[in-house]
Structures
1.
Amino acid sequence: SSLRDLLSGSTLNRPGVRRSITASMIVEAANRMIPGYLPGMQAFEVVAISFKEGALRLRVKSSAARHGITGVERELLVKLQQDFPSAKIQKIQTFLSKEPSRYELP
């Protein structure tokens, strides 16, 4: 599409584009919030990587960090729901992995 279409908002109003932008905003917001909820080095061991179909996915590097995020999961979920009322953020999923997934940017 042309730059004029992009600036006029027609491209941004397409459903897939809007969902993608909203998902990116939720992931970035979660990554900014997480350090405030976890103590010490655990804050650097949790990374939000994606949001799809109501689920925010977090990659955790240690079981201690996974336990820590489980304790504050509800608070984080409520805060994200308040910040993004139009998005249906229903749950937080975590998976243990020291290596970045293919969905994470380098």
2.
Amino acid sequence: MTVQLKIKIKMNNSEITTCALANTRFEGLGPDIMIPMNIAQALNIRLNPSDSEVYAIRTASGIAPIYRFKGYVLAKVIVNDRDTPLIPLSPVISESMDQVILSDKALSALGIVIINAGEGVWCFNDELGKSV
């Protein structure tokens, strides 16, 4: 099992609610959020050379380009028992991904603690030892 979080992502006047994979093996340069191309388009993120940098990464199926957007999106975790704050995250857009993935530093910025990755159990920092 994996840890999936329901999140809202906002960029200017556009927003989308989706699931994101909490992945501590995605070691971002900062609080990064990997976004598939279709979600980037829905958020109206433009990949102009002046707004993004292109990198090549190694994936299971070979080398793929990713686009590191120079701006940020606002993201928050959606839960039933509280209204969480919007946190700025750096979008990394990928044509080869089909899922939103949160980097290790994005998880920290959002206050997420993974308790048991195999069971998909997590909590917020301030709930540690009290709730999951």
3.
Amino acid sequence: MKCFTPSEIDEIDNLWRALPAEHMWTGWAAAGRKPEQIWIFRTRAHWRQFPLSKTDTGYAIADERGLVVARAKSLKALL
């Protein structure tokens, strides 16, 4: 897997902070200085975690089973 850069992590944080309070994404988390995955959290009836990863052409987000549910060339487009 490819690692997220500090500027990409800052972009994720800025995108998350710009969301309205009622948006389904409730937060995100990353582990380590150069994470290979970032977890996006959602809550509706219960908490769910979606791993975000980098691809050769952009970004992909998967469900709890690891099945890719969305791909995009930019983080903003993925949102």
